[in-house]
Amino acid sequence: MTPVMHPLIQAETLCSMQDDKHLVVIHAGFGETAYANYLKKHLKGTRFVELNTDLSDIKENAAQGGRHPLPAVQAFARRVARLGITAQSHVVVYDENKGANAAARFWWMLKALGHQKVQVLDGGPEEAEQAGFPTDTNIPEVQPATAYTTEQWLLPTASLDEVTRASEKNTVTIIDVREPQRYQGITEPIDLIAGHIPGAINKPYQHNLNTHGRFKEASELRKMYQEFTADTTLVHCGSGVTACHTLLAFAVAGLPIPKLYVGSWSEWSRNNKPMATGTHSKGTS
């Protein structure tokens, strides 16, 4: 049996792999300035993906799947092929927000495509640069690969109907990873309405990191999440992106990955669903 690759890689380890012919480093950006930021400076040899255009299939109405719906699995497979990623590739992905902007989402999607060798750079590109990984402004030449033929996402997701039943019956734990003020309904800077799904508990994704901006130790993350079994837990955020940061934390803890509710609050709050404010009895951690 092939050993499971740890979901994180440290900067020093990445530096030691610079000459590995199978290494593929991905800069995962988000927003209109993402590509310009990539061109200004990135880890040498890094290839670029962008959350809105490469990792989502954004609809005209966010009520249909939320602000960042997943693309069709084969559309993503073709994008992965254009990045030159083969089954032998050792993929390392980073973003500019400790993995929470787009890197964890890319990690989840690549795992859900069936790729095994993928890790998120713990601490981000600054850590690698400080450890001695060279930076560049050039766009690397890439030899396209053969696309994966996966016909459906291989990691579990939850639909709006499934989350509705979970909220009504209270038989499944719904974890909301947004900031407490958004969860409590005090403020909502992105979506139309503030609040949370009735019955959801708040476990902000920022709590996955230590004071240095790296993921907490596996034992500490295990204490945070071991009470939540994968088959009775749904994880969501605002649009299905930062939720992947917590799914990554589950993997770091050595726990099975729960279901991702991709539509998240951005879909729920636009579909005339019940909403709650304030804190839940299980509280925040």
From TrEMBL:
Q: Does the keyword RNA-binding apply?
A: no
UniProt xrefs under InterPro entries = Rhodanese-like_dom, Rhodanese-like_dom_sf, TST/MPST-like
Residue ranges constituting the Rhodanese domain according to the UniProt record: 38-137, 168-277
Q: Does the keyword Amino-acid biosynthesis apply?
A: no
User: A single Pfam family, by name?
Assistant: Rhodanese
> Gene3D superfamilies under this entry?
Rhodanese-like domain (3.40.250.10)
What SMART domains does this protein's entry cite? RHOD (SM00450)
User: Which GO molecular-function terms appear in the entry?
Assistant: thiosulfate-cyanide sulfurtransferase activity
Q: Which UniProt keywords apply?
A: Repeat, Transferase
The residues forming the signal peptide are none
Listed PANTHER family: SULFURTRANSFERASE (PTHR11364:SF27), THIOSULFATE SULFERTANSFERASE (PTHR11364)
Protein name, entry field: Thiosulfate sulfurtransferase
What gene is behind this protein?
sseA
